[in-house]
Amino acid sequence: MNKGIYTALFSILFAQALKIPIHFVKTKKWNPMLFFQTGGMPSSHSAGVSSLTTFIALKRGVPTIDFALSFVFGLIVMYDAQGIRRQTGELTLKVNSLDELVRKAHADEKIPFEEKQPTKLKEMLGHKPEEVIGGGILGILFGFIGFLISKKDRQKRRFFVR
Fold it and tell me: Which residues cross the membrane (predicted)?
């Protein structure tokens, strides 16, 4: 299989796993479900695209179309992760707090109603800029490691082929 794909997927999984101990250090709460959620430090989106871009740059070279495609699409993903998706998360925080505001406003009314428990919208959708940068740095590291592993595999194959 393609070593670039392995490198990107491993960096995404590692970034997701890293969110659990980072969250624990910040909050003193252990939450293994963070592995399956979006948002938080580091950005697995950024880790994935930057590791793939780094791997391609080292393996194929910066002047190649492969690198150009990976770099441009990586920038778009990283911009989206901290821009649009972050704003959506901020809006969701406000929407989720409306329920409490409406309840307080209508506390004195005697209108019968059937109370339904709404499903709370997911609040952690996007990333802060530092989370995107953290994921990018992690991805560059994994891209470099993936390239070194790939390079060693090629050298071993040449040794045994001769």
Answer: 132-150
Asked, for residue 108, whether it belongs to a domain, the answer is: no
DSSP symbols for the chain: --HHHHHHHHHHHHHHHHHHHHHHHHHS---GGGGGSS-SSSPHHHHHHHHHHHHHHHHT-TTSHHHHHHHHHHHHHHHHHHTHHHHHHHHHHHHHHHHHHHHHHTTT---------PPPPP---S--HHHHHHHHHHHHHHHHHHHHHHHHHHHHHHHHH-
Domain hosting residue 40, numbered range? 3-87+125-161
Q: What tens digit of pLDDT does each residue of 5-26 get?
A: 999 999 999 999 999 999 999 8
Query: Which pLDDT tens digit goes with each residue over 36-57?
Result: 887 778 889 899 999 999 999 9
Q: Is residue 154 part of a domain?
A: yes
Whether the full predicted model's pTM is greater than 0.70, yes or no, is: no
Residue with tokens 């252990």: 30
Judge whether 100 lies within some domain: no
Q: Contact, 44 vs 129, CB < 8 A?
A: no
Answer whether residue 106 is part of any domain.
Answer: no
